[in-house]
């Protein structure tokens, strides 16, 4: 649905050049929620703005729903942009307009007749759970409600793609949860593809199907969340399951195993190999609706003596890391 190929963007200023996006390739499949996770200054906003060409890449191409946006003339680009919704950290609402007035705005720009507009605005506000606040001004709404207006407005052009620029960063954890639930719900009900940028691991854990980690303008790791969890050296997996440095224990094999779903791994291991397994540490999370965890196990004896048990783990777990 979205293909980013070799995109670069450098800001030039008297203080020196900043290569905000330093050659990024990324593919977002139709219907998925894709998160770009990175620290402040990593280049996430610049990358996101390149996707609807609010920012012109210096090099590379961006294809959305089969159309290479860089080939479009200004009028066609404006039309294409209307089909790519965007929501913002600070909502970007017009303070002089009511919730309904804000949602109506893009419809006015699109030339939708007044009657149809009113019906569509009511429908959109209902969709985001704000049907009863149509006449409220932004100043009379909570942060979460303002973001709901932002989402309704972004959906006015019936986009297939929604871009989210830190949409929950200004919200408290509970409100963040309700907005993420709404985004997941819209993703499923409308088949909406969502590309979001965030600095919060929590957002990735809650709703992302796939994730890219961005550092200094580059993607260092990318793919479906469950695939990344299976890689022992994955920075995402380490960030999600924080186990700390392994202890050095005499005549003991310390091993980290990643498991997905309801797992009988430990009991099977103990039974099959008659081994006295201890759990030293563990982190279990719900990721995009499924359970996954990383457990740190201690097996009596050296790794060589535990070869059969370790083979068992390698065959059954999605990732196994034996500590030396
Ligand atoms: N208009 C601009 N002019 C000059 N430099 C810019 C401009 N916009 C961003 N930058 C620089 O580009 C780099 C990437 O910024 P960007 O906003 O894309 O990162 P980010 O990951 O979204 O961070 P944040 O969450 O803090 O916005 C930073 O070093 C930033 O200072």
From TrEMBL:
CDD domains assigned: ABC_MetN_methionine_transporter
InterPro entries registered for this protein in UniProt: AAA+_ATPase, ABC_transporter-like_ATP-bd, ABC_transporter-like_CS, ACT-like_dom_sf, MetN_ABC, MetN_ABC_transporter-like, NIL_domain, P-loop_NTPase
Residues annotated as domain ABC transporter: 2-241
Source taxon at top rank: Bacteria
Gene3D superfamilies per the UniProt record, alphabetical: 3.30.70.260, P-loop containing nucleotide triphosphate hydrolases (3.40.50.300)
Alphabetical UniProt keywords: Amino-acid transport, ATP-binding, Cell membrane, Membrane, Nucleotide-binding, Translocase, Transport
A molecular function (GO) term: ATP binding
PANTHER family registered for this protein in UniProt: AMINO ACID IMPORT ATP-BINDING PROTEIN, METHIONINE IMPORT ATP-BINDING PROTEIN METN
Entry protein name: Methionine import ATP-binding protein MetN
